[in-house]
Amino acid sequence: MAALRSTLLALCCVCAPAWAQPKPGQVMDDSILRSVGSGYHFQTLSLESADGQRHYQLWLGKPDQAPPATGYPVLYMLDGNAALGALKPDTLRALSHKAAAPVLVAVGYAGNQRINRAGRTLDYTPGPARPDPLTQQPSGGADAFLDLMEQRIKPAVAERLKIDFQQQTIWGHSYGGLLALHALLSRPHSFQHFAAASPSLWWLGPERLAAAQQAFAHRLQGGPASLLLMRGEAEPAAPHSSPTTPAADNQAIQALLAHLQQAQGLTLEYKSFAGLGHGPMLDASLEYLLKSM
């Protein structure tokens, strides 16, 4: 435990905000919704948070083929507005021809912003509530958001499409990767497959991350569950650090993997992307996941 904490200690400090903040005013690319011959057809669904303060937009992508007898597998994609722009027609076409092609659910926010910074800052970060170190916006709503997923989003999808509840995947990048990892560590049976790309491990700090990992094995109770952990080789470990020392910057990920490998019932895969920085990992990680399904 002491070694794990010392390894992660450098991730606590936060200064320059340039690393994780998306460019303001970026408009989402929704051209995939009008793509012909991709093998998927999309419908939309709107809902609100329990307090009525956040307005969500969901895009449900149904493959052309009929569902298997057990229902469609399903992939929930966080930062859904940005995820739509990462979907490629050729990739979807190949995916739609597979025997168990998944339903794709892009979980985003109302409006045409590619990234809703205020929404994701609150929804994708674990509690307790505090000002976000990068943006000073409210954070700590991850558990409320996961409740929303379980109580409203999943049932709404199942009302419209036949879903296999034993084949559910959640994917997220950056803060979304943190949310996917938090879901695994705190609710390992909420999904069967977890895909965390460039998770913002620095946000938790060493004490909270270590505590979450220690409780995980008990919560998993032998699984099964799977985690796909992805990271770009050119990524810094935290917003303030330099990407020029990839071996050192990769220590937190390696420490996390070493700890999770001890959990009985968890299947682990780690994928490193040569030459990629933090931002490009959104598209690259989702593409890799889709081709792996």
Task: Characterise the protein shown here.
The protein has 293 residues and is α/β, with parallel strands linked by helices. Helix content is 34%, strand content 22%. The protein contains ten helices and eight strands. An eight-stranded mixed β-sheet has the order 1-2-4-3-5-6-7-8, sandwiched between helices. Strand 1 and strand 2 form a beta hairpin. The N terminus is likely disordered.
Provide a compact summary of the structure.
This protein has 293 residues and is an alpha/beta fold. The protein has ten helices and eight strands. It has one domain (2-12, 29-292): Alpha/Beta hydrolase fold, catalytic domain (Rossmann fold, 3-Layer(aba) Sandwich).
Element-level helix/strand string:
HEEEHHEHHEHEHEHHEH
Average pLDDT over all residues = 89
Shape: globular
CATH architecture: 3-Layer(aba) Sandwich
Estimate percent helicity. 25-40%
CATH class, anyone? Alpha Beta
Number of continuous helical runs: 10
Number of strands: 8
Q: Radius of gyration, Cα only, in angstroms?
A: 18 Å
Show unreliable segments: 1-20
CATH homologous superfamily, by name? Alpha/Beta hydrolase fold, catalytic domain
Spatial order of the strands forming the largest sheet: 1-2-4-3-5-6-7-8
Q: How much of the residues is beta strand, in percent?
A: 15-25%
Instruction: Assign the CATH topology.
Output: Rossmann fold
The number of domains = 1
N-to-C span = 35 Å
Major sheet: 8 strands, mixed
- Counting helices, strands and paired strands, the structural category is alpha/beta
Oligomer, anyone? single chain
